[in-house]
Amino acid sequence: GAVVSQHPSRVICKSGTSVKIECRSLDFQATTMFWYRQFPKQSLMLMATSNEGSKATYEQGVEKDKFLINHASLTLSTLTVTSAHPEDSSFYICSARRDSASSTQYFGPGTRLLVL
Amino acid sequence: QQQVKQSPQSLIVQKGGISIINCAYENTAFDYFPWYQQFPGKGPALLIAIRPDVSEKKEGRFTISFNKSAKQFSLHIMDSQPGDSATYFCAASRGQGAQKLVFGQGTRLTINP
Q1: Is A34 in contact with B41 (Cβ distance < 8 A)?
Q2: What is the pLDDT of residue A75?
Q3: How confident is the model at residue B96 (pLDDT cuts 50, 70, 90)?
Q4: Closest approach of chain B CAs to the CA of A91, in angstroms?
Q5: Which SS3 state, helix, strand or coil, does residue B84 take?
Q6: A106 and A4 in contact (C-beta within 8 Å)?
Q7: Of B36, B43, B93, Cβ closest to residue A108
Q8: How many beta-carbon pairs below 8 A join chains A and B?
Q9: What is the least distance, in Å, from the CA of B91 to any CA of chain A?
Q10: What order of strands is seen across the sheet that includes strand A76-81?
Q11: What are phi and psi of A87, to 5 degrees?
Q12: What is the pLDDT at residue A99?
């Protein structure tokens, strides 16, 4: 159990367009989902925490209007990169936690975004 | 105080040897310490995790040693295999609130056959 999927796995888009990335918990309900960004050969940087039915909490320095997060159900969270630019190119990874009593985060396979 | 410092940055071990990766933290409120394994182009996968009430936890070839007074914890991989070649991340989180993970910088492990 505890499988998290992401879609798409890879996306290439033109500068100025918006891209939506989906994160789903396949076999459990996730009260909290997290979105990370990872640059090559670097660690994971937390972008935001999202709880089902409420607004996401963004980390310092992350633009809310740039990275729109929606956690519409207990199994789905989406990250939309609006008006993407080449500097937004990165590896985006989501994770999910079952409930508030559990500290364990299960990670998705990641989405590689390339903005041309 | 929110940092987790990981070392070494890279590590080369011969097949069958023991791989040791170390992490140190400052925030005494951290109470959950997982280790993740990440292969290129993939998301991190949880390997093993420990809480401060125990000093060691073993799962197969993977062992976490935890030193609460020194605020350090380490991952030991026994009988290291070429398939263990990956990047390893330690992390820490607090038990309250959002329980956000703070990650170490990562260690790129290479097991030579």
Answers
A1: no
A2: 93
A3: low
A4: 8
A5: helix
A6: yes
A7: B43
A8: 57
A9: 10
A10: A4-7, A19-25, A76-81, A67-73
A11: -70, -10
A12: 77
